[in-house]
Amino acid sequence: MLSLKVGYSALASLRIHRTKISSLSNDHVYFSVCAASTDEIPIIRVPLSVRNRIENVKQTRGKNNINTSKAGKLLIQSRNPSLNQSVGYTHGKFDEPTLCSKGWKHKKSFGDYFTVNNIKSVAPFVSGSGEEEDIKTPVKTFHTLHICKELVETLERLNISHPTTVQLQTIPKVMRGHNVLCAAETGSGKTLSYLLPIMHKLHLHEEIHEEGSPKIHALVVVPSRELAEQVASVSRSLCAPLGMVTRTVGGGRGVGRIKAVFKQDVPDILVATPGALVKALRRRCLDLSHLSYLVVDEADTMFDPSFANMLEEILRYTEIASAPTETRGPARKAQLLVVGATFPGGVGEVLSRVTDLGRMVVIKSKMLHFLMPHVKQTFLKVRGQEKVLELNHYLKRLQQEHGGAGGHAVLVFCNKGSTVNWLGYSLEEMGVAHARLQGEMPAAHRAGIFHRFQKGMDDVLLCTDVASRGLDTSRVRLVVNYDFPESHTDYIHRAGRVGRAGGCEGGEVLSFVTHPWEVELVQKLEIAARRRTSLPGMESEIREPKPVIVETEESG
Predict the structure, then answer these.
(1) Is residue 137 part of a domain?
(2) Rounded to 10 degrees, what is the CA torsion of 163, 168, 172, 175?
(3) In degrees to the nearest 10, what's the CA dihedral of 298, 302, 303, 308?
(4) In this structure, what CATH number is given to the domain that contains residue 226?
(5) What is the rounded CA–CA span in Å between residue 126 and residue 388?
(6) Domain boundary residue among 311, 332, 364?
(7) Does 477 score more than 50 pLDDT?
(8) Is 160 part of any domain?
(9) Per the domain annotation, does 351 fall within a domain?
(10) What domain range is 348 assigned to?
(11) In angstroms, rounded to a whole number, what is the distance separating the alpha carbons of residues 352 and 373?
């Protein structure tokens, strides 16, 4: 098989029955020739691979003629301007977006980057931002939610005057006694959405306090000690004027410490981690027979296999109501509130064993599982050995831009505790002050680390995903994924540490991308950003579990 490269002038001397010409340049052509007689001129054909390559070039050139950039702000900003996409451009249903990260599995792509710009200045969950289309009459203050005066005054002292969208939707349902599953984006104010109605109802129902028996009336279960301390701190600040007591019990401190918590006066509200709570229940340190409210916070983590068995055991110690009428009167049952930033996959299977799933009110944010539109997110393809230098560069730049202590709080996420320690040693050599937090630390070392970071005593915190769930990081301006998260769920939680309700504006997320499997996750994130759709593979509905069919000998 031959392929000839000739000038245009040479074509006139050939007797050709059929000629296929594909122009590759101004001076030469490739062509296929079939002569009138095989004795005169041999058969000359263009190889199939060459023809396919030519067709691919034609198609690619045709696609690149589609201009995804229009006048106005850019949604996607790339190192290659031809791959930019403006906010005003919308992909067709069957259009395949051209990705900035398409060739990132190749070694020559190191140094490439793209940014998903923030297209909103205000978070969509902030009341009055124009995003709460589901609410026909927007509520502007907590007074119109019928929260008691003492709580409203306490909120005003904390500079909280307007409820967020998720609070507007959740609080009335909890006040009416419904079991609620609330799934809303991180930082949208879910903690107050369950604490406020619980405290209001405990304060008004005086018969609860007249029983005289040492019983806990509200229980909040969370996955980590840090989150338990944070929720308890919010609870104490709210319930102090009401004369109610909040306590915490966390794991890693031994049975003696757990027993000591319950030797004091029994609290009205208990915030606990599942491991410590199970230990206390097995040793009969507390009684949940008079429990009025059970809250499962950070539900996607609590229904994970690592916690699911303990959570089921806790649910067996309580009697959950199936309808709002069962949450009233002397023989009341516990009202169940399940809260999270992502829909837990196994929630239906577990909850159907303790309550009527069909009567459970599901409150789902319109932006659930979407990339946050008010946070700038940058993805950088970088070699593993260069990540430390890139991190140091960004930390120094942020310090110069926002200088002064407390103005540039940064969270740096790693996938393993060993990476946190190694990175800490490297930053120490570069003179970068920081703190470290990871789950493998002893409880005594972990205590107070995140609290110091919240108070501004440390500006850079190196951590694992133990700090990505539910913790209040209002002062954080930059989140760095030093190790790219292993799932879209982890990415949502990490990115949610910035742009929170009441937090500083202009938050950013920087993600280092090194390995091929990380590129695959980034490409799915980029497609979701360009199409403005939710992330793939995330749960979107709560379903009744399918009945298990047991085959008997007669049927087999």
Answers:
(1) no
(2) -40
(3) -170
(4) 3.40.50.300
(5) 36
(6) 364
(7) yes
(8) yes
(9) yes
(10) 143-364
(11) 35
Mean pLDDT lowest among 64-73, 268-277, 349-358 = 64-73
Backbone angles phi, psi at 174, to 5 degrees: -65, -40
With 0-12 / 13-18 / 19 or more C-beta atoms within 10 angstroms meaning exposed / middle / buried, residue 313 is: middle
The stretches of 331-448 forming alpha helices (DSSP H) are: 347-351, 387-402, 417-429, 443-446
Which of 364, 387, 418 corresponds to the end of one domain? Answer: 364
Across the strands, what pairs with 2?
A: none
Task: Let me know if 294 is exposed, middle or buried by CB neighbors in 10 A (0-12, 13-18, 19+).
Answer: buried
Whether 268 shows a pLDDT value over 80: the answer reads: yes
**Which DSSP string do the residues of 135-202 spell out, in sequence order?**
-SS---SSGGGT--HHHHHHHHHTT--S--HHHHHHHHHHHTT--EEEE--TTS-HHHHHHHHHHHHH
| Rounded Cα gap, residues 415 and 486, in angstroms | 8
| Most confident residue range from 19-28, 243-252, 291-300, 377-386 | 377-386
Does residue 428 sit in the same domain as residue 512? yes
Residue-wise DSSP of 288-339 = -TT--EEEE-SHHHHTSHHHHHHHHHHHHTS-B-SSGGGGSSTT--BEEEEE
**Count of domains observed in the chain:** 3
Q: What is the CA radius of gyration of the chain?
A: 30
Structure confidence by residue, pLDDT tens digits, 141-166: 888 888 999 999 999 998 888 899 99
The reply to whether 164 and 272 lie within a common domain is yes
Q: Please, what is the Cα angle at 301 between 298 and 305, to 5 degrees?
A: 150
Q: Which of 380, 382, 407 is nearest to 395 (CA)?
A: 407
Residue with tokens 């340049």: 25
Identify the pLDDT of residue 404: 53
Query: Helix, strand or coil for residue 363?
Result: strand
Amino acid present at 49:
S
Direct distance between the N- and C-terminal alpha carbons of the chain, in angstroms, rounded to an integer: 63
Q: Which residue has the tokens 């007797």?
A: 15
Query: What are phi and psi for residue 322, nearest 5 degrees?
Result: -105, -20
Indicate whether 96 and 188 sit together in one domain.
no
Distance set, CA 158 to CA 154, 190, 234, 409, 502 (Å): 6, 17, 10, 21, 11
Q: How far apart are CA 524 and CA 468, in angstroms?
A: 21
What is the chain's length? 556
Q: In percent, how much of the chain has pLDDT > 90?
A: 38
Q: Which segments of 456-506 does DSSP mark as H helices, in order? A: 488-495
30 lies in the same domain as 163: no
Q: Which residues contact 386 (CB under 8 A, 6 or more apart)?
A: none
pLDDT of res. 50: 84
Give tens-digit pLDDT for 486-544. Answer: 999 899 999 999 888 766 777 899 999 999 999 999 999 999 999 999 888 776 555 55
Cα–Cα distance between 246 and 266 in angstroms, integer? 9
